[in-house]
Design brief:
This protein has 301 residues and is an alpha/beta fold. The chain has 12 helices and 9 strands. Norvaline binds next to helix 6. Phosphoric acid mono(formamide)ester binds at residues 51-54, 124, 132, 259-260.
């Protein structure tokens, strides 16, 4: 693995190797075993959108690995004033050992990797959220011991999370069912990939998608950058809430995951969220371990 731009680029072996190392790093941290695997290395964290989890887990994760993380807000970088990504990439490659970027267009992330000469990690684009889904897979595997054969159900907006969950789930041999309203389907590129799997289903019926699911996942109905569409979206997603009725269709004891931030009363009820808070916050914690694994695998040369 040279970069982490999207899970579509990753093999099953690469995904599983991240999860293995993440488990090991989590164990070591729990037992106070230091792991300065990236001593002397620097990563730049470029943010064009807000973040709590991604920023804090990358910054503190890099510190725990013995390296340094630089928070680079696009408000302050010249990239925010129009310096081309090709130039930014070539300059940063001379100072840093890796770049994480959170932005709008997937193309910007791909360009950074193309023009730069250091590993690039996608910290969320409108298209996908691979770091989050690696943490989700880690959390699911912690609970069930396996991924293969489990049924993962995603309800709601066919957004960045849906796109990455479909690819990550199918690549790790899970069954993936997705329910979105007609006009809010996952990306075509992802649906083309999923078309090769008889373990994938897409419907507009949330109850059908949730049937017998081992894991139920949802995400906000209005992602960052879609604030102006909020009202229209709130209407479009009525009936796509993760609530008691939907959970009753899933397997008894099914797990709930949410990348956060969560909007109670919209995509998930307060009751379901709080009943599954332990596994949702474990998922949030696992961002730290999964991303440390990604940084080590990409940057420890
Ligand atoms: N889930 C996630 O990526 O959270 P942040 O937006 O807070 O980084
Ligand atoms: N789909 C959400 C995820 C936030 C972590 C967004 O893009 O805003």
């Amino acid at each position: 693995m040279e970069h982490l731009l999207k899970l579509l680029d990753c093999s099953q072996e690469e995904i599983l190797s991240v999860l293995e190392l993440a488990d090991q790093l989590k164990y070591e941290r729990k037992h106070h075993i230091p792991h300065p695997l990236l001593a002397g290395k620097s990563i730049g964290l470029i943010f064009q959108k807000s973040s709590t989890r991604t920023r804090v887990s990358f910054e503190t994760g890099m510190f725990q690995l013995g390296g340094q993380a630089l928070f680079l807000s696009s408000r302050d970088l010249q990239i925010g004033r129009g310096e081309p990504v090709q130039d930014t990439a070539r300059v940063l490659s001379r100072y840093l050992d890796g770049i994480m970027i959170r932005t709008f267009e997937q193309k910007e992330v791909e360009d950074l990797a193309r023009y730069g000469s250091i590993p690039v990690i996608n910290g969320l684009t409108d298209f996908c959220h691979p770091c989050q889904v690696l943490a989700d897979l880690m959390t699911i595997r912690e609970k069930y011991g396996v991924l293969k054969g489990l049924k993962l159900c995603y309800i709601g907006d066919g957004n960045n999370m849906a796109n990455s969950l479909i690819v990550g789930g199918l690549k790790t041999e899970m069954k993936v069912s997705v329910a979105t309203p007609e006009g809010y389907r996952p990306a075509k590129e992802v649906l083309d990939f999923a078309a090769g799997f008889d373990t994938f289903t897409l419907t507009d019926d949330p109850m059908k998608a949730a049937e017998n699911a081992d894991i139920v996942i949802t995400d906000t109905w209005a992602s960052m950058g879609q604030e102006a569409e909020k009202e229209v979206r709130m209407k479009a997603f009525q009936g796509y809430q993760v609530n008691d009725e939907l959970m009753a269709a899933a397997k008894p004891g099914a797990m709930v995951q949410h990348c956060l931030p969560a909007y109670r009363g919209q995509e998930i009820t307060e009751k379901v969220f709080e009943a599954h808070a332990a596994e949702i916050f474990e998922e949030a914690e696992n961002r730290l371990h999964a991303q440390k694994a990604v940084m080590v695998l990409l940057m420890k040369k």
